[in-house]
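User: Hey, my collaborator sent me this sequence without any context and asked if I could get a structure. I don't really work with proteins. Can you help?
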Amino acid sequence: MTTTPPLRLNDAHCHFFSPRFFDVLGRQKGLQGETPGVEVARLVGFEPPGTTEALADRWAETLSQAAVSRALLIGSVPGEEDQVARAVARHPDRFVGAFLLDPTQEGALTRVSWALAQPGMRVVCLFPAMHGYSPVDARVLGLAEVLAGTPGTALFVHCGVLTVGVRRKLGLPSPFEARFGNPLDLQGLALRHPSLPVIVPHFGGGFFRELLMVADTCPNVVVDSSSSNGWMKYSPGLTLRHVVAQTLAVLGPERVLFGSDSSFFPRGWHAAIRDTQRAVLDDLAVPITDQQAIFAGNFDRLFGSRRHA
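Assistant: No problem. I've predicted the 3D structure and written it out in C-alpha cell form, which is a compact way to encode the shape of the chain:
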C-alpha cells in the first residue's frame, strides 16, 4: 500500500477579515452604535475578530496547526491596509501582506506608497467588477507603472464572477459587473511590464479560456487555485481535473500558486480545498516535485523565503 507523501504548504489566498472589515459592513447595513462590526459577526454566524493583534495571533496559530508555513494575507475592503500591515509586522515570518485598492478613489497612489513602505506589504489587489472600472483604465495602468518600478511587489486582479458571501447573508446589494473582469484586458498591462507578477485567482473565475490565452502570451501572469471554483457550473461538464490539467499544460507547474480562500472563524483554515486539489494532482500523476512547487515553492520564489526556517 502506497501513501501520499506530505507536502510543505504555503497559502497564496487568505482573507484577513479585520475589525475594519466588519465595521465597514456594519455601516453599510445601517447598524448603529460603537461596535457595528460585532453585530455583523453575530448576524452572519462568524466569530468577532477582536483586536487586529488578536486576530493576527489566531491566524498564525491556526496556520501552524494546519502545517501551513506562510500565507498571503489579503485585506478585503479599501482602507484595511493599516490593519494588514500590523498583522504582518506581528508575524513577519508567517504573513505576506496584500491590500484591496480602488484605483478610482482620490489619493489611491498615496495609499499605495504608504502601504508598500510597510515591512512585508507586497501585493496590491484590484477587484474591477466590484468598483466598476476596466483594467485598461489609465489609473490602473499608472498603478502598474508604479509597481513595476518597485521591486518585490505584485499585482493581484480578481477576474470573472464575483460574489461576497457575507454581503449576501446580510442582504446587502452586490452590484458587481463581471464585464469588468475579463482577463484579456490584462494582456497589454502584463506585456508592458514583463517583470511585474500579475496574479489572477480562481483560474480566472469563469473566464478560464481567456485566462489561458493571456497567460500563454504573458509569462508574468500566474494563477492561484483558490476557493471551490464554483464558476465551473457555467461550463457544463467542466471539472476541476480538466481545469488543473489544462492549466498545467499551458502555464506549467511553476506558474500556479495554491490558495485556499480561507477567511473567517470558526471555520478557520479551509483544509478541504487542499485535500481536493491534492487529490486532483495525484489523479493526474503530477510529479511530487511539481506538486511541491505549486503548494509552496512558487510562493517562496515570488515572495522570498521565510527568514527563519
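In plain terms: The radius of gyration is 18 Å. You can pass these C-alpha cells on to your collaborator as they are.
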